[in-house]
Amino acid sequence: MKKVTVYCGSSKGNNPVYVEAAKLLARELIKRNLSLVYGAGNIGLMGVIADEMLAADMSVYGIIPQKLVNIEVAHNGCTELTVVETMRDRKWLMAERGDGFIAMPGGIGTLEELFEIMTLNQLAYIHKPLALFNVNGYYDKLLEFLRQACDEGFLKNVQLDSLIVSDQPEELMDRMVSFQSSTFPKG
User: Fold this and answer.
1) Per-domain residue ranges for the chain?
2) Which pLDDT value is given to residue 180?
3) What is the pTM assigned to this prediction?
């Protein structure tokens, strides 16, 4: 694994624990000499993790639609800044460039990206590890819902079980490195 795509909020959230978690995750990526692929924002948790990586002279690959560049949220300090036309283009390029994925706390965009990667893995478009950085129990209710989806027969246990969940960056990365792709059953 060389590049990790991190999905996270364009907000910092209401609790300072989220900013500290973004810094901790960046430090873990730095320790492992990994590059960051992300949504190229200079605001919120996106800006925090990028700034931490850049301060350590690590590679940061930002991918952003022109519309967001126009409203001045692009991080101009990125090692490489790729401007695309649409959010769909951004998501696909982020999925393509990352060797693994981590969803930090974030809003609806982060959730969309999380489910996109779950779907791409399920349908075998990609075979890459996906992790939830469950800072402060942020994803606990979502995990309950996904368990219910399994119980009701709309999600396979293997799909949920392939999701790596931890509130510790080191554990997330260890489990991502040892990830073995599963073949998801049809139906």
Assistant:
1) 3-176
2) 80
3) 0.95
Backbone phi, psi, residue 166, to 5°: -165, 160
What secondary structure letter does DSSP report for 41? B
3-176 is classed in which CATH architecture?
3-Layer(aba) Sandwich (3.40)
pLDDT in tens, 77-96: 999 999 999 999 999 999 99
150's CB contacts (< 8 A; 6+ apart) are 156, 157, 159, 160
**Which tokens hold the place of 110?**
């982060």
Place of tokens 């890459």: 128
Displacement of CA 6 from its chain's centroid (Å)? 3
Task: Mean pLDDT check: name the lowest of 15-19, 102-106, 180-184.
Answer: 180-184
CB-based burial, 9-32: b 16+ in 10 Å, e otherwise: bbebbeeeebbebbbbbbbbbbeb
The 10s digit of each residue's pLDDT in 108-125 is 999 999 999 999 999 999
